[in-house]
Amino acid sequence: MANSAGSRKRARQAVVRRARNASMRSMVRTYVKKVVAQIEAGNYDDANKALLTAQPVLDGMARKGIISKAKASRTMSRLNVKVKALKA
């Protein structure tokens, strides 16, 4: 239990921050799912559009520390390989 005024404020800030971070992580997963859905449907054009929409979101979340830079890079790379395979 937080006792000092400063620690109580930190606890309040942590709750807000945790909720925001959870929301942002959820948003990233949604964008990735949209790309995966288009890949599974076999739509190259739609998958490519969804990937182009998801990339800046992944980059932004990595920059803010919501997800690690390595995870963002790995996710984009894997999605990109799958989208390119649709075209071939």
Briefly, what is this?
The chain contains three helices and no strands. It has helices at 5-41, 44-64, 69-87.
What this model shows, in words?
There is one protein chain. The protein has 88 residues and is mainly alpha-helical. The chain is built from three helices and no strands. Helix 1 (5-41) runs antiparallel to helix 2 and helix 1 (5-41) runs parallel beside helix 3. It is elongated, with a radius of gyration of 18 Å. The N and C termini lie far apart (59 Å). The model has no long low-confidence stretch (mean pLDDT 96).
Q: Rough shape?
A: elongated
Radius of gyration: 18 Å
Helix percent band: over 70%
Total of helices: 3
**Beta content:** under 5%
Low-confidence stretches: none
Helix-strand pattern: HHH
Structural class: mainly alpha
Question: Which characteristics define this entry?
Answer:
88 residues, mainly alpha, 0% strand, elongated
Topology summary:
Blueprint (H helix, E strand, L loop, with lengths): L4 H37 L2 H21 L4 H19 L1
